Amino acid sequence: MGGGGVGSAAVNPGAGWTWGYDAYAPERERLVEALCTLGNGRFATRGSAPECAAGTTHYPGTYLAGCYDRRTSLVDGRAVENEDLVNLPNWTLLRYRRLPADEPAGEWLTPDSDELRHSTVRLDLRRGTLHRGLYFQDARGRGLRVGHTRLVHMGDPGLAAQRTTFHAYGWSGEIEVESLLDGDVANTGVERYHHLESRHLSGHRTVFAPGGVAGLSCRTGDPGHLIALAVRTDTRPARPARTTGTSTGTGQLYRLPVARGRTVRVTKTLALRTTPAHTPGDPLARAVEAAGEAPSFPALMAAHEAAWQRLWEEGELRVPGEPGRVLRLHLFHLLQTLSPHTADLDVGVPARGLHGEAYRGHVFWDELFVLPYLDLHFPDVAEALLRYRHRRLPAAREAARRAGRRGAMYPWQSGGSGAEETQEVHLNPRSGRWLPDHSRLQRHVGSAVAYNVWKYARSTGDQAFLYGEGAEILLEVARFWADSAERDPDLGRYRLRGVVGPDEYHDAYPHAAVPGVDDNAYTNVTAAWVLARGLDLLRELPAARRAELRERLALDEGETARWDDVSRRLHVPFHRGVISQFEGFGELAELDWEAYRARYGDIRRLDRILEAEGDTVNRYQASKQADTLMLGYLFRPDELAALFARLGHRLDDGTWRATVDYYLRRTSHGSTLSSLVHGWVLARLKGAGAWRYCEEALLSDVADVQGGTTGEGVHLGAMAGTIDLVERGITGLEAGPDGLRVAPVSLRQLPRFAFTLCCGGHRGVRLRVLPGRLGVRVPAGPGAPLPLVLPGDRRFTVPPGGERWFPL
Ligand code: BGC
């Protein structure tokens, strides 16, 4: 993606709405499947070819938000428990072959057939549909054009459909088509996990019902979910020549006459119904009924398109050129993973979307990169995601208690239950060795949850949530930090020891017997921030609620006095004029970056390279991703300076710039979040290299920069983060109680863009950034004029129904 032409392109609403591939390339197929996934927040289906079951090239997958299953596997001689996002039965499968008159049946045709002449894949982002086109021709020149159109319904989150058309060229006869529901599936999408138990579904039951409906139900083990899928197959003739019920699936076989110039259609309409096990009612019966009653394909399509149109209006971000097209793809996948339907569910932010099985579908701290966008566009969804965390507050409290701490210790990786799900050992594919995994020591995840609570309430003005569930989360995380802080009499400061920062490369000091590092600057500064906000919140709460919370949480004045003390005296290490990533980071060895780049080319996973060499990245000043620099991502310079001042340090512009420069030269960007944060921080500093990192963040998934990982699921944090980078990073936008603050920096490659957001009680406030100018339009309607604060504390208001332009 070249920045070149982008600047001059106009905002063109019609352009940039498709994503596609013009040839079939087996080695790229998993990437295509991930990037062409369709979903509606409730469930998603990878963009796999309908002709193919799982194998080395193809990996169909359907995932239901929040549907995890816990299994025990034997790994490297020890029993390991894992909670996995379950791959559901494949509803898309459709086999077909030619039955020319007076000849034996041909081969089942697939993209891998020798007869394939041409293949295209098109994702229509505006409509939320996936189109696959194939053209087959046999040795005698008999052609068959096949087109599949798939949707996962954005209006009715229990429905999906796939219409296939066949068109014969140069022959007449029949096509044999088998519409299948395949429950013989497992979680085998990630090669590294092949040692783990992969079968999650059992108790399969199949039924056939009138009207071309076939149904399949099965269940997961722990916790038990009953899952039922029913597919209605519509074609002519409507009656199948044969139906097959196996122990794990169904097949409906049709013989369809084809003649020159005639198009034959087969439509599969899916109804998905699930319930927790042991709840009354039979989801299979409900699925069968729903599939039978589902509207026709054109009617489904119309309602689906209308639902997408509403989403695009609410989520709108218009950026010209190729960056705009990639951003739209990012937004598309974000909205398919976390849609307005998510607001009705109890689910978190899966780091890899509902697009694949990497990280087993777990929830990390990545919501820190996702919620700010949702706060501004889909506040109900943001609130639901925070409520998911609130429902798991008891689990976080229990985790803290077991660790001998008070308050709430949110897990680094989690799924359904809210328990810690981080693996204890991980495989280095380079060395083939299983290594202890200490990444669970990333306690900073709790601060991310608390930060999101605060930010959500500031952006949306939802005091009820902040004073209710939000306060409970924030105060319990604050309490955890205060209780974790150890006083060091020699330093005269508090310390947080034995943690891992966002840079997961450093999980111990070289030669140390115990894991973890001390005083990770990011962890300590964000902990101080949480403590300070906890105290602010206690002051701000209505008296009755404050009294109630103090009593319920047994939070006395003595404890909050300690919070205040800790928030002012947490240790923040420095070395040679820069903030140290953690105590002792500056004393680690310098890595010869050039030598490693020359030897290995891609050194993003430097940890694996060094371990395979018998060395360890713990010995070096080398970070996987933005760690200390995350502070510049979360806080404005004045906020950061104030935080440091509260901690007794002066953080001037020079120190911050030196710190940015120092880590830029010592980071391998082994996470897609890294380039995003570097791009953001450099853009805010008006740094020359900003675009390089922004561009890399934009390319994370579409160019699969982490070397083959996108096929295992998209990187949702980076996807959402890039949208937010334009909307908040470049504009410096903050929505708060005093209206909208905007302080744009200019990025030559993104000179103009526009988006709408919710602010000050108005939905659909539209911002337009043009070179040297900012336009703000507030939609007509009730409500107060929108206050706007521009750099230099210039204050304005924009009335409902008004639009104003400001020089920048
Ligand atoms: C990153 C984490 C991130 C996780 C899930 C890891 O590679 O280091 O920061 O939370 O991926 O996206």
Please explain how this structure is put together.
The chain is of the alpha+beta class and 808 residues long. Among the domains are: 36-307, Beta-galactosidase, Chain A, domain 5 (Distorted Sandwich), CATH 2.70.98.40; 753-807. Helix content is 31%, strand content 25%. It contains 20 helices and 32 strands. The strands form 8 sheets. It has a 9-stranded antiparallel beta sheet with strand order 1-7-8-9-10-17-14-13-12. The longest helix has 22 residues, at 463-484. Bound molecules: beta-D-glucopyranose (BGC). Beta-D-glucopyranose binds next to loops.
What distinguishing features does this structure have?
single chain; 808 residues; alpha+beta; Beta-galactosidase, Chain A, domain 5; 9-stranded antiparallel sheet; 5-stranded antiparallel sheet; 20 helices; 31% helix; globular; disordered N terminus; binds beta-D-glucopyranose
Helices and strands in order:
Layout: E1 18-21, H1 29-35, E2 38-39, E3 43-45, E4 62-75, E5 78-87, E6 94-100, E7 116-124, E8 129-137, E9 143-152, E10 159-169, E11 173-182, E12 202-209, E13 213-219, E14 225-234, E15 242-245, E16 249-258, E17 263-276, H2 283-293, H3 297-315, E18 317-318, H4 321-337, H5 371-377, H6 379-391, H7 393-402, E19 425-428, E20 433-436, H8 445-460, H9 463-484, E21 486-488, E22 493-495, H10 521-540, H11 543-552, H12 557-569, E23 574-575, E24 578-579, H13 593-600, H14 606-612, H15 630-634, H16 637-646, H17 653-664, H18 672-684, H19 690-702, H20 716-730, E25 734-736, E26 739-741, E27 753-759, E28 762-770, E29 773-777, E30 786-790, E31 794-798, E32 803-807
Parallel strand pairs: 26-30
Antiparallel strand pairs: 1-7, 2-3, 3-4, 4-5, 6-11, 7-8, 8-9, 9-10, 10-17, 11-16, 12-13, 13-14, 14-17, 15-16, 18-27, 19-20, 21-22, 23-24, 25-26, 27-28, 28-29, 29-32, 30-31
Bound molecules: beta-D-glucopyranose.
